[in-house]
Amino acid sequence: MFGISFSELLLVGLVALLVLGPERLPGAARTAGLWIGRLKRSFNSIKMEVEREIGADDIRRQLHNEHILQMEEEARRILNPQTPPAQPPVTTATVQPPAGLEARPVETPAAPGTSEPPQPPRAP
Fold first, then answer.
1. Residue 52's pLDDT is what?
2. Can you tell me the distance from the alpha carbon of 72 to that of 79, in angstroms, rounded to the nearest whole number?
3. Cα–Cα distance measured from residue 85 to residue 25, given in angstroms and rounded to the nearest whole number
4. What pLDDT is stored for residue 88 in this prediction?
5. I need a surface site. Which of 13, 32, 77, 89 has the fewest CB within 10 A?
6. Neighbour-count burial for 27-37, b at 16+ CB within 10 Å, e otherwise
7. CB-based burial of residue 59 (10 Å sphere; 0-12 exposed, 13-18 middle, 19+ buried)?
8. Are 13 and 28 in contact (CB under 8 A)?
9. For the segment 44-64, what is each residue's pLDDT rounded down to a tens digit?
């Protein structure tokens, strides 16, 4: 990881044994291991927090961009009112009478009190 070979580690261990002595070396190694573990955990927590903030910034940026796009579309609609929005085509259906029946015009009776003859229905 750091480019330290086994012989260099062995040399550091031998110097630590000579400086600290055989009685204090296990306690010093344990303390060094605890500190290294704490450093790793703190670096990992900082790394996760930074990644979480970066993710939150990306989400904020995306929401801001979507808001800007909506504002642009609204401005275009306001500035260009000549172009009507696209509407789906209107379809008309023709109704055929069932087989064996023919279509006949329906006569409507005149309203009571009027002397006008009923009007025949108009053809479409």
1. 85
2. 10
3. 81
4. 62
5. 89
6. eeeeeeeeeee
7. exposed
8. no
9. 999 999 888 888 888 888 888
**pLDDT below 50 — which residues of the chain?**
none
Cα separation of 8 and 2, whole Å? 11
* Structure-block tokens of residue 105: 């015009």
| DSSP letters for 21-81 | HHHHHHHHHHHHHHHHHHHHHHHHHHHHHHHHHHHHHHHHHHHHHHHHHHHHHHHHHHH-T
pLDDT of residue 57: 81
Q: Which two tokens stand for residue 53?
A: 């903030």
Indicate if the alpha-carbon torsion angle 19, 22, 26, 31 is positive or negative: negative
